[in-house]
Amino acid sequence: MGSKREGYISWDEYFMGVAILSGQRSKDPNTQVGCCIVSQDNKILSMGYNGLPIGCSDDEFPWDREGDDPLDTKYVYTVHSELNAILNYRGGSLEGAKLYVSLFPCNECAKAIIQSGIKEVIYDCNKYEGTPSVTASKRMFDAAGVKYHQYKRTGRKIEIEL
Ligand SMILES: O=c1[nH]c(=O)n([C@H]2C[C@H](O)[C@@H](COP(=O)(O)O)O2)cc1CO
Ligand SMILES: [Zn+2]
């Protein structure tokens, strides 16, 4: 009897890989964020990346980080990857699900994560650690019983020819 193949990717590598790949769809020139929501029994339920709402053109709305007028920045228009993944879900309840995301969730996404019933957040980068947004997210996750931990990178490199 033959034995199983070795070197296959772990569940964590799989789901964070899907999250990061999803982020490659982002048109944001500065930060591309991707998200993958997974059931407790490791089935992918939804994915998302940061982008503009349906009908808002990527070429007509601004991607600037700064501007004299907030209306000339991306911040008032973009939908975050986590919210997109939650809103993209077509199957009913996300109660008890896990969320893999390439950047630690902001306070607005934290609210949506908590309210949708997601119970665990696995994040990769946390480049805004220490900001009020991230601190507020942690405070709300702690109060609501949502667990969060950083993804442990394995160093595995995956090349895909497309
Ligand atoms: O949790 C998040 N999820 C998410 O999708 N984003 C998006 C919104 C913006 O398009 C981009 C952040 O842009 P910047 O790093 O240039 O401020 O990342 C940002 C955060 C946290 O800041
Ligand atoms: Zn957010």
Automatic annotation (TrEMBL):
What are the UniProt keywords, alphabetically? Hydrolase
User: For the CMP/dCMP-type deaminase domain, which residue ranges apply?
Assistant: 10-148
Q: What is this protein called?
A: Cytidine deaminase
| InterPro entries given in the database record | CMP_dCMP_dom, Cytidine_deaminase-like, dCMP_deaminase, dCMP_deaminase-rel, Deoxycytidylate_deaminase_dom
Task: Determine if Hydrolase is one of this entry's keywords.
Answer: yes
Q: Does the keyword Transcription apply?
A: no
**A Pfam family this chain is assigned to:** dCMP_cyt_deam_1
Name the source organism: Claveliimonas bilis
What cofactor(s) does the depicted protein rely on?
A: Zn(2+)
